[in-house]
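W.,

You were right to be curious about this one. When I first looked at the sequence I had no strong expectations either way, so I just let the prediction run and decided to look at it fresh. Below is the sequence, 465 residues in total, followed by the output.
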Amino acid sequence: MPQTQQHPLVAQIAALVEQRTGLAVNQQFRHELEPLLRGLANGNLDAYLRQLRENGETTPVWQRLLYTLTIGETYFFRDPAHFRLLREHILPALVLKRRAQPHPELNIWSAGCASGEEAYSLAITLYEFLPDLARWTLRLVATDINATAVQAAQRGLYRAWSFRHTEPSLRARHFSEQGGSWQIKAPLQTLVTFRHANLFAEPPLQQFDIIFCRNVLIYLQDTHTQTLEDKFYRALAPGGWLFLGQAEAIHSRRDRWRPHVFPGTVVYQKPETKTGKLALIERHNNPPLDLRPAPPQPPPATYRDAVLAMHADEGAKAERLLAELLTQNPQHAAAHTLLALIFANRRALPEAHAHLDHALRLDPMLADAHYLRGMLLMEEGQKGEAERTLQGALYCRPTHVLSLFMLGNLQAQQGELKRAYRTWEKARALVKGLPPDEPVSDLSDLTAAGLEALIGHRVGDEKPK
């Protein structure tokens, strides 16, 4: 379907928002952007653009726009894997190192804190982890560009929906009921300093031990993402940790970070000392994370929309859809596999392998995950392991035609032309029974007709004499 041309003034407003804030609003809102802006402008886009150009982001005209653009879903202890890693791995090491000091301190930044649920989740984690909290200097700073959201965070009053993935006992310990809402208790509220700030301004402090910036980078253009990653790197203390969202990964200058791969997630550490070498990948094979209570199953259309976006070469849209889906249902194995493909295309291989590991823990018989792992192994030159992995995909689903095709290619590369020919013929027989215009896998936009043509070329080129 041809896309309708965007109104020139809408395009100029979108460019101005991106210049001032980094938000890629055209990617985020697409078809909804023009009616949204017309509503804010009371129909006069020209006058509205002038207002925006003549005023700063802290003024009411900008704040109303930013509130509309940045209001997002958040709740307490979102992405529970991150908080478990914090409790079981990162905080114990930091506290052990600092506790012997006469005046121990921890500095944490919740960047893009929205209405405060993430920042207060961090405060609760620290409060429960540190029995000697009184002797520590804690600087837990939370910032957001949305002034209305920051004001809500400062109030610390939440509806029950913000607790939808937490145990009732946690809410009872740390909140007081007030007329159907829940107020954060004063000792925790005083631990957090909320500030209205643009992420592209100077960091609120330097030498942070931990930075949380989750589900923000996916809404930024690449140049702004690189700027923000540089800022986080400078703001972290040596040995400090960066937490990104489920569907996010470091884009630029990856060699300066040390990725730590845990089941289902990757976190990034700034090395203690500078080196000119590629940062090592740390793998942590702790038991699978307990993600209960399982959230409700999201509508199947969410995953299908992500697949369609990938097939339409709209990777950014697919990434956002998968981030939303995995927030609601972190046990969606196929979504982890599709996200692994996005990371693999970006050459973020530790993240790709982490999501494949998690997908196969959730569903060991998921043929697409075995197939993608086989492709990554082929690229890494591990041909023997790649062949075993592709055979594993076919064990899970004997009709997985992409695995058959790639297995034939691998056999041909190894000089086993007779085996390759038999494998391709088996794939061709299967693909003939598929709808010709349908993609053969969620992981590829290659249609059955397209794959049949590829197999035909290979059989013609490689058929043993």
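Here's what jumped out at me. Confidence is low (pLDDT under 50) at residues 286-300. And, maybe more interesting for your project: Residues 102 and 135 are 9 Å apart (CA to CA).

Coffee later to discuss?

I.
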